[in-house]
Amino acid sequence: MAKTLSLGIATTLLATTSAAGSDTSDRAPVVYVIPFSGQMGTDIHPDIYEDVIKDANEVNPDLVIFRLDSADIDNNFHIANDDRREAGLWQELEAYRDMMMDLQNKLPVDRSKQIMWIEDSVGASSLLALSWPTIYMSEGGRLWGIDAIRGFAEGWQDPDVRAKMYAAWVGIATGFPQAGGFPMELSNAMIEPQHDLGVKFKGREVQFSNDLQGTVWTIDSSDKSVARFDADSAEQVMLSRGTVQNLDDLMFLLGYREYGTADSGEKLVDDYKETWRRTFERCASWLKDARDRQSGGTLADLGAAKNALEKVLKAGQRYPAVAARLRQDYGIDLFQLETQIEAMKRQIAEGRRSGRNRRGGGGSGRGGGGLGP
Asked: How far, in Å, CA of 119 to CA of 71, rounded?
């Protein structure tokens, strides 16, 4: 049964135990839960996990559990209710890789004490799911492939460049399951649709193969889709070490009937998500204000529009998640926005020097970029 500990209590408990020279097996372990929940690239972003790493080192727990719940596709397949704006952002693969490596190497416990708990994982989040060797899954959970990576290369017209870019992205993606100690055959089948996946058993060991000949169980034989697992199939091939209902269940399978939890990491992540999303909503209002005031055409209107855009710029600079969604939802790049603001400043200065209440240029100004839809 879990006992929630504050940061101070958890730290004091650990310090007291250490000073007394007691072995950690004589007491209930302290568990630090790190959520990976929401959209990859915004909710799940290196910006917040730098703070989580610092906090975890202050708590100094015995065990770290990554709780992953990030799916691009809804479970209700018969209802088209997925908000595609919330799909994981694939452009940040290198940032995800660096974040994963920081978490594995800078937390106060080594990887043998880091557990990946997959509640649901579809899309880019599956890269993180496979980055840790010790995996448990929730009942009904999914571990679905990451074939969307093939879409990255489609924007390149030159076939040689397209092939090189695709190979580069695949190379980065395969590094995640390699970090988790999983075989290349599994990586191939979960990333590229042309690879089949089957398994055969040698004693208690499972061997994955992209050649279905000689395998006893076929996981994927389609060249149009990648390999997928649910909680049951992942456990049957020992990709997952067990299926759980909640944290108590997971800790029991790990061999602990009693444990304490330090919830400061979860609070950090929850507060971060709430703050950046609230800020992004305000950006939508500021962008509307900017468009409305620019249509007025006076220098006062242009000044008010500039002020609104400056708020958007500061929000994007403060929160990379906001910047990412500005690009995705509005087509607004921060550099272009900054250029546009500078052009508006010059326009206002020129109007004041001329002594006329001139019109504001009727839109985005000379800086380009526009204000999105």
From this structure: 10
End-to-end CA distance of the chain: 51
Q: Alpha-carbon dihedral of residues 282, 51, 41, 187, nearest 10 degrees?
A: -170
Torsion of CA 248, 252, 254, 257, to 10 degrees: 100
In tens, the pLDDT along 14-47 reads 443 333 333 445 689 999 999 999 999 999 999 9
Residue for token pair 């040698």 = 202
d(CA 328, CA 316): 13
Q: How many CB atoms lie within 10 A of CB 76?
A: 9
pTM beyond 0.85, yes or no: no
To the nearest 10°, report the CA torsion of 231, 236, 239, 245.
Answer: 30
> What are the φ/ψ torsions at residue 103 (nearest 5 degrees)?
-65, -40
- Written as six digits, the tokens of 154 are 């489609």
Residues in a beta bridge with 229: 143
Write out the two tokens for 207.
């061997």
Taking each helix axis from N to C terminus, what angle separates 299-318 and 334-354, rounded to the nearest 10 degrees?
150
Hey, which residues does 118 pair with through a beta bridge?
A: 68, 137
